[in-house]
Design goal:
The chain is of the alpha/beta class and 173 residues long. The chain has one domain: 3-Layer(aba) Sandwich (Collagenase (Catalytic Domain)). 30% of the residues lie in helices and 21% in strands. The chain is built from 5 helices and 9 strands. A hairpin with a 2-residue loop joins strand 6 and strand 7. The radius of gyration is 15 Å and the shape is globular. The termini are close together. The structure holds zinc ion (2 copies). The site of one zinc ion (ZN) has 8 residues, from loops.
C-alpha cells in the first residue's frame, strides 16, 4: 500500500512536507508527493464560485494509478458537493481517491489572525479523515476520532488526528 499526495502548485512545499510527515506517522506506509494537480477548471461552477469535489475525484483516478495506491488531491479552492454548501473534503472508496481543501482551514478565512500550526494540524486531520474513507471507514460518533464528521472547524479542532479503538482495526494496515 502506498499513499500519494497530489497538491496543486499553489501549495507550498513546506506545507506539503508537514502533511506528509504527519500522515506517515498515522499510516506507516510510503508516501509520495506528486505536484501538478492543477487542472481544476473542469470542476469549476461559476454560479457558486466553487469547485465540484466529485469531478476532481474522477480526475485523480487515472490509468496510472496503482491498485494498492491511495491518492489524495489537495487544493486551495473552495469545494462543494451536490447536497452541501461547502465541504472540507470528499473521498471515494471504490477508486481509493480523495480530495481535500485548505480553503476554509485558515484562521484568516474567518477574519482571525493567522495561526500556522493550527492550520497545518487541521490540514493533517482532514487528510487522514479522507484517507480513512478510502479504507472504507464511515463517520464515527466518537467526537475525538479522526473519522468524526466535521460540520464546522470546531469539530475538526476537537477531534484528534488518530483513529479510535473501534475504527483503527477496520483499517487493516
Ligand atoms: Zn467524512
Ligand atoms: Zn472512530
Amino acid at each position: 500500500m502506498k499513499i500519494t499526495l497530489r497538491p496543486s502548485d499553489d501549495i507550498s512545499e513546506e506545507i506539503m512536507k508537514e502533511i506528509e510527515k504527519q500522515v506517515k506517522l498515522v499510516f506507516h506506509c510510503p508516501i509520495a508527493i506528486k505536484t501538478g494537480f492543477n487542472h481544476l477548471s473542469l470542476a469549476y461552477n461559476a454560479q457558486r464560485n466553487q469547485y465540484l469535489a466529485t469531478k476532481l475525484l474522477e480526475s485523480l483516478a487515472t490509468s496510472e494509478k496503482r491498485h494498492d495506491e491511495k491518492i489524495v488531491g489537495i487544493v486551495e479552492v473552495d469545494l462543494y458537493c451536490s447536497h452541501l454548501k461547502f465541504i472540507f473534503g470528499e473521498a471515494d472508496f471504490n477508486s481509493s481517491t480523495a480530495i481535500m481543501s485548505l480553503f476554509r482551514l485558515k484562521q484568516e478565512y474567518y477574519g482571525l489572525p493567522a495561526d500556522r500550526d493550527l492550520f497545518i494540524t487541521r490540514a493533517c486531520k482532514e487528510t487522514v479523515h479522507e484517507l480513512g474513507h478510502t479504507f472504507g471507514l464511515q463517520h464515527c460518533s466518537d467526537l475525538r476520532c479522526v473519522m468524526h464528521f466535521s460540520n464546522s472547524l470546531a469539530d475538526t479542532d476537537w477531534k484528534e488526528i488518530y483513529f479510535c479503538d473501534k475504527c483503527r482495526p477496520k483499517l487493516r494496515i
